[in-house]
Every structure is written in structure tokens, then in C-alpha cells.
Amino acid sequence: MADMIWGGIFSKNPSKKLNEFMSAENIEVDKKLVPYEIKASKAHVKMLVSQGILKKNEGNDILKAIGKIEKDGLDLKIEHEDVHMNLEKAVTAITPFGKKMHTARSRNDQVNTVMRLYMKDRIKEIKKYLKKLQGAYKFHNKGVIPGYTHTRVAQPLELKMWSEGYIQMLEGDLEKLGQLYKRINKNPLGACALTGTSWNIDPKKTAKEMGFAGIEDNPFKTIRMRGELEAELLFDISLIGMKLSKMAEELILLSYVGIIEIPEEYCTGSSLMPNKKNPDGLELIRGKTGRMYGNLVTVLSILKGLMSGHNADTQETKKPVMDSTEQVIGCLDLISEIVKGIKWNNKKIKEELDKGNAYATQMADELVKKGMSFRDAHKEIGKKLKKN
What we know:
The protein is mostly helical.
């Protein structure tokens, strides 16, 4: 019999090569899931006791052991594969009742649970930083600036319309994340490997203990959907990243023509050229957006050909989710500070408006108000501008 927890049917342990291939990178990812695994395991053990599946003294000993591990820290080891087995091994090293804590659950519903807890927290953070960026735009609400189409001056644009436009765009992202949060906020613990469990468990109790608003009631659907909520979060993040990239590009262009000045503390210099003040932070936001897109495509590609039930492929969905959530939070935080600190150059604004003939459409409209057709007014103003 092999030494692994699941090794009853095996006569050999997995090779070191397989273990490292399966778990070396995964263990690094799982370090971020330790607090969520502890939270979920506490809830599960309390429920097992309340349902009479574990004796009270058994549950108390397990919970004390988990509490000690929570205080001292959990050192994840490759040979124990993942955060779930590492915690169980650590608990069992303190109390023999640790061998009972896995009753009525599987690593499949465990990882579903901890990833949902992780994503709930990250969504809250992303929403906080979206609101911070909305607040940064509120600083800019007086005056007129050039509005652009095709990267050319088009019409005068009220600064208040510009800022409120971005605020409202970001509100859409807050709404989408709120809708996704509701879908994530259901307890999957109890789905086990595929078909649920024969034990008389109480998913509503573990849901309340972990802060979920409801429960998943179809085990097959719950396990089958592993990765889909992650993909949806990555899609929402990609849309946010796209907006941030466009904002960054706009600020870079406006600073190049001199309409705005980017705060010096958010620029970098050249190692060669003494004259340079480079908007590297904004440029990197553009670059990181491509990375967010890549993470979305990675997860969609993983999910597209999977047979129903759990597949080890879905282990690869964790890292992209963690990477994109961390990257978008960093981008939102940085661009908020830049937007808040930009200074408008009124002299350059007037020059750009005049040079780009920004009031041409209004001039044509004035001729229309006097009785001329719009097409004739359009031609008349065009001729006048051509002469100038």
C-alpha cells in the first residue's frame, strides 16, 4: 500500500518526477489559499459535529489543532500535493482525529469552495479600487478641453462630461462584478467528487459559517462548472483592463501635446537621455492589459474540451485568476493616483482647440439655424477653413 492519503488501492507511491510536475507550482499558488482552506475546514468540522457525524470531543480536538496551525502558520510541502492535504496532514500530526475531518467532502468541492472564497474577496477589492478611480475623475469638472476622433481634434468637450463619462463607464464594471459576486456567493461544499454524499450533511450551516448567501443544490452541475466562474471573473477583469489601457493611451497623448502634465512622481527618466520624462507607468498598464487577456484565453482554452466531472486540467485555472486580480488592482490603484494628480494647461488647450478648428460643427449649426441646409452649411464652413 502506498503512503499517500489516497494510496489504499496503490502498491507504489507516485514518482518524485510526477509529484514535482503536479505539485511544485501548485503549492506556490495554494499558499494564497491557506486562510480560505482553514476557514472552510473549520466550517465543515463544526457542521459534522452538529450533524452527529463527528463526536463533540473529536470535533473540538480538530478545531483546536486548526486554530494552532492558523496561529503558527502552515508550511506547504510538495509531497502532500495541495493546501487541502497539507492542512489535513498537519491536523493529524496534532490529533489522530484529523483523519476524520475529510468525511463527507472531496478535494473537488474543497477547491471549489476556497476559490470562491478567494474570488469573493478579490471582487470586493477590485470594486474598492474602481470606486477610487471614479473618485479621482471627480477632481476634473470645470472647463473645456479638445475632444478627439481618429486621434484628431473633433469638438470642444466639457471637462465635466469627460470625467462623468468615465465614472459612468466604471459604474458598468461595478454592476457586472456585483452580478458575478451573486453567482459566486453560493456554497459548493457538499458536492464532493461529483454526485454529493450519502452523509446527512447541512450545506446551509457551512454556508452561513463561511459567509455564503446560499448553496449549490446540484452536485454534478457544481463540479462540472469548475472554472466557469473563474473565466467570467477574468472576462470582467479584461474589460476593466481594456478601459484602463484606453485611459492610459489618452493620458499619454494629452501629455504629449501638452494639454496635461502627468505628475512627475509617476514618470521615469532615461538612462541615456537627460531630457526625458517617460510615462512608463501608463505604458505598463497598457502592457498588463494584454496579460489579462492572455489569462482569460488560457482558462477558456483549458475548459473547452473537458469531459464532465473533475479533471486535473482545472488546477491550471487558479494561477491566471490570481495573477489577473492582482494585476488589475495594481493598475487601478496606480492610474487613480495619476488621474487625480494631472494638471491641465489652459494655454495649450486653447491652442489645440484653435489649431484643430474644434468649433467647426457649431459654426455649421449656426448657419442651419439661420435657414441654410446642413449639407450646404457643412460645405460652406469647409471652404472657409480650407482658405485659412
